[in-house]
Amino acid sequence: MEFEDLIFKRRSVRKFRDEDVTKDQLDRILKAGLLAPTAMNRKPCNFLIVSNKETLKELSEVKEHGSKFLAGADKAIVVTASTLEADTWIEDSSIALSFMHLMAANIGVGSCWIQMHLRKSSDGEDCEKLVRDIIKIDDHYRIVGILALGIPDGDVKPHTLDDVDKNKVHFLV
Q: In 27-173, which ranges are E strands?
């Protein structure tokens, strides 16, 4: 697939069939995250795979909005980054999440990035802390987001040229 075609094909998928993401598909998605560039090639990101349905449900309830669909995903990848290894953990994690999101679309796996950094629960608690408590990791690991994965339930329509807002482009002279 041409890269431009992939850009149009990529969509956030929030509804999944009761079908497994295969080991090969997961490996390819993880490889994309592991190959993502990081500042000074420090590679501070870790990818925690969640497939336990109870844990997926628990993670789906961390945020007040925008994460409920995680309970219906086959798997999730919690992207963590060590603040002891890099101060660019936000950027590095974001690039890794984007690479994995694109690879998932490329191989027919639905995915959606669920932001955790700077988000609060319905009780006003920090979402990152709640996720750290669920997956039992140390405080120096930060969590930009979780990538929900599953086989899309229904057709996923690609973007079209009509979705391109050229008013967002400004040429400076």
A: 45-50, 75-82, 110-115, 141-150
**Between the CA of residue 133 and those of 58, 71, 141, what are the distances in Å?**
11, 18, 11
Alpha-carbon gap, residue 67 to 12, rounded angstroms: 12
With CA atoms as reference, report the closest residue to 76 among 141, 7, 135, 35.
135
Distance of alpha carbon 155 from the chain centroid: 20
118, burial (CB in 10 Å: exposed 0-12, middle 13-18, buried 19+): exposed
Tokens 């007040």 appear where? Answer: 64
Residue with tokens 């603040």: 83
Residues 25 and 107: beta-carbon distance below 8 Å: yes
pTM (two decimals):
0.96
Q: Which amino acid is at 139?
A: D
Give, for all 173 residues of the chain, the pLDDT tens digit: 799 999 999 999 999 999 999 999 999 999 999 999 999 999 999 999 999 999 999 999 999 899 999 999 999 999 999 999 999 999 999 999 999 999 999 999 999 999 999 999 999 999 999 999 999 999 999 999 999 999 999 999 999 999 999 999 999 99
Q: Tell me the two tokens of residue 34.
A: 């592991």
